[in-house]
Specification:
heterodimer; A: alpha+beta; 14% helix; globular; B: 252 residues; 8-stranded mixed sheet; 32% helix
Chain lengths: 77, 252
């Protein structure tokens, strides 16, 4: 299935892309997608994921046509 | 009332916002009676405290145990070169007293910790999270939840910033959505970014005190200064949230 991914801000862009479609196995989770995009397993937990306009957990299952926006958790002040 | 230092009456100071429908004398009194805790008086805390002081908020409780360092001065506008080595609360008080001597300042030059957090925040009508680490933010979020005090969260890194408002019992809490990010010792930051986010936090604080709806509850507002993009992302309550999922702040 295909999902659409956008990168917001300074989060590393997979293959330099910040707006792209990505093919992944049916029923894959958000975490599987993040790993599939090449993010290091140690850094995956620090990625904020917006799925179809709502923040979601990494255990959420994806469906064809889903739109995701990924950004880095930030804590500076 | 005449402000002895400026020689003007207090209404002149606030003239330009008293004519706003949402403020007027009723809103002015509401702001004057408010006591707001600004937790962290650095990049975010500087614009937050400055704008709340000049807006006529009655009392600001400034909580920060740091002293002013040279590397702070690209962004922390309440502090200046002549303040190097001075506690940030004291340095901030110098500027804030000059900006608006009518604003009472309660200086707390201590680090927020589990053992002192309840007493530090007691009696505040609103808390503004201007901290600089995930761990301290999580603690602050939990205490605000327990004390049922609204909190305005803001954070910055590099060109990016974000904010949201947490009203216990009504909105997702910080632990519902904030990932377990690792604290960085000296994250990069463009000085103007905490200015943008801090100004938005101050705006939201005034809206919260004046009960202007809709607040930024259940919404994360993201800003990327490099591309000048804003986004809004909906936040949802987590039924198994370790902080609010067992009762307490859980929406009913």
């Amino acid at each position: 299935m295909n999902v659409h991914v956008k990168i917001f801000g300074a989060l590393q862009k997979p293959q330099g892309r910040d707006d792209f479609s990505h093919e992944i196995k049916d029923g894959a989770t958000v975490e599987k997608l993040l790993l599939d995009l090449g993010y290091h397993p140690r850094h995956v937990s620090a990625i904020v994921v917006e799925l179809n306009g709502k923040q979601t957990r990494h255990t959420a299952k994806l469906a064809a046509g889903d739109e995701l926006v990924l950004s880095l958790a930030i804590g500076g002040g | 009332m005449v402000d002895e230092r400026s020689g003007t009456d207090d209404l002149t100071r606030y003239q330009r916002h008293l004519s706003l429908d949402e403020i007027g004398m009723v809103g002015h009194e509401t702001l004057r009676r408010a006591r707001v805790a600004v937790v962290g008086v650095g990049g975010l805390g500087s614009p937050v405290a400055a704008y709340l002081a000049v807006a006529g908020v009655g009392e600001l409780r400034l909580i920060d145990d740091d002293t002013v360092e040279l590397s702070n001065l690209n962004r922390q506008l309440l502090h200046a070169t002549s303040d190097l080595g001075v506690t940030k609360t004291r340095s901030a008080a110098r500027r804030l007293n000059d900006l608006n001597p009518e604003c009472r300042l309660d200086l707390q030059p201590v680090r927020l910790q589990a053992g002192n957090a309840d007493s530090l925040l007691a009696g505040c009508s609103l808390v503004v999270d201007c901290l600089d680490s995930f761990s301290s933010r999580r603690l602050l979020g939990e205490v605000c939840l327990r004390l049922k005090v609204p909190m305005i969260h803001g954070a910055v890194r590099g060109w990016e910033g974000r904010l949201t408002t947490i009203v216990p019992g009504r909105s997702p809490c910080l632990a519902c959505w904030l990932p377990p990010g690792a604290d960085e010792q000296k994250p990069p930051v463009l000085g103007v970014v905490p200015g943008v986010i801090g100004a938005l936090q101050a705006t939201e604080a005034i809206r919260c005190l004046l009960r202007l709806e809709p607040l930024l509850t259940g919404t994360l507002l993201l800003y990327d200064g490099r591309t000048m993009m804003f986004r809004r992302c909906a936040l949802e309550h987590r039924s198994d949230c370790p902080s609010c999922g067992q009762g307490g702040g859980k929406p009913t």
